[in-house]
Amino acid sequence: MILKALYDYYHRSGDLPRKGLEIKEIGFLLVLDTDGNFVRFEDRRIDNKHAQEFLVRKSVGRTSAPKANYLYDNSAYVFGYSDKGDDSSVTKCFDVFKSQIESIYSDYPNNMEIRAIYNFYQKERELIVDILQKDSLWEEVVKNLNKKFSLFSFIIEGDTQIVAEKQQLLSISEENTFEDDDVCLVSGNKSRLVETTTATMIPGSQATAKLVSFQVNSGYDSYGKTKGNNAPIGEDAEFAYTTALNHLLRADSRNKFLIGNRTFVFWASRDNEAGKQAEESIWSMFGFSDSNEDNPDRKIEQVRKVFESIYKGTLKTSLDDKFYILGLAPNSARIAVIYWAEIPLVEFAELINRHFEDMKIIDGRKDQKPYMGLRSILSAVTLGGKASDVTPNLPEAVVKSIFQGLSYPQPLFSGCIRRIRAESSDKDKVAVSITRAAIIKAYLNRLNNNEQKIEVMLDKENTNQGYLCGRLFAVLDKIQGDANGQHSIKERYMNAASTTPAAVFSTILNLSSHHSEKLNEGKNVFFEKLKQEIIDKIDANGFPAHLDLQDQGRFFVGYYHQIQSFYVKSE
Length: 571
What we know:
Elements: H1 2-13, E1 21-25, E2 28-32, E3 38-43, E4 53-57, E5 72-73, H2 75-79, H3 87-107, H4 112-120, H5 125-133, H6 138-143, E6 152-156, H7 167-170, H8 235-248, E7 256-259, E8 262-268, H9 273-286, H10 300-312, E9 322-329, E10 336-344, H11 345-359, H12 374-379, H13 394-404, H14 410-423, H15 434-446, H16 465-484, H17 488-499, H18 501-516, H19 521-535, H20 549-565
Parallel strand pairs: 2-6
Antiparallel strand pairs: 1-4, 2-3, 5-6, 7-8, 8-9, 9-10
Helix pairs in contact: 1-8, 3-4, 9-10, 10-11, 14-15, 15-20, 16-17, 16-18, 16-19, 16-20, 17-18
């Protein structure tokens, strides 16, 4: 199903390279004059990680034997230089590339560009390297030999197009001979089968990593078949799905997001307005980097509106419209599939809407910045608020919870409790932030238990003892703040009050009585009535001796709700 979905994506996209071609990042060009003399290196890098893309012939599948790409390759092939590997193997690579240039020249003897490249290779390898080493960019070339973009190609001086992407050289004749029993499992059509598939490298994987591969003589061969014949994939289908996947994985792709060493790609089955907006919205919601943006979640509210429109039918979809999510992880050779979802787009919109609904909580902030994106959620449970420092498996678990409508991971909930405890004594930090309160609410409400659901705003009918203790603590904190501008009750007693209420509430209630004396009569009466209203709902046996972890979470949500009620007008 994964390969068929990628195959279909290739055919619905319309703007991907045709069979036999692919987009490649090429970092440096060898500029030649029309006689084949080396003029200079030309730097086509964009930054430290990426270079300009060119449409060239598809790269060859390499095994142990050297194979040359068509008019572009790495330094060992193009000019016989490498900073690793023995000299004999580099010489073989160079000779293979040189032999291919001679073959291309025999096919295009009247092509001026090919003749220039052919003349360049009439020199010995050692002389070519010696000439290139005198160029001012040589040190940069050597420094970047192991980068992903460390490929080299040719351009004729004064030209604007590299030789490898000239239209005449990109025309590929296709042979359609195949055996009667060669049926592709992806397309169902008769086709020549591939032995090995094209590399689809993801961050952290080897450059030759593949989604489909078979290791010879390692238990994967069956019925006398080897390599790709164990899972027959036709050339057309293999090209389509690998091209589609590499397109989704490209550097500037808005159809992927990275979580640690996990790569998630996603796409809609149709290229309609609903599909486009769904793809863009998922990228906005999950596709973050650790940049210094003032508001990395600035588009989250628009994401909510898009999926609400899809679910309600404002953005038109059909029952056949689907959404796909593929999670990949690096492995020793073959890429590991860690997640796969194929779901009708309307159902997917419902799951995203459910996440927003579960995370919705009263917001008394003036700016009311969105807080439901993945970056905000992960930042809320890490020291220093840096999402990249989160526990390795947690982001993946959060994503799966949202995409499948499952309970949020317990480490996310406990992480919130832990960070609140760590920051409650810091007067310069808001320990019970809106994101943490929302996470606790969402986690507890998705649990399959008989507890009363937590509402978006203050719920005076909620009689959970943890929730009530949190409300009461918020009242005592507010009294102290209004009385003398301090919050020492919160800084000294919040952790104890949220775990062992019976041990501390008598003390802080007594302290609060002294603070109340400093308030005017109107405020004093208001707070006394509020305290009594909450205490009346506390169990007849008194404050709980101990709150379990879930009720500790309800304590903090009760605290948050009650604090917000002091600043937000009720409707």
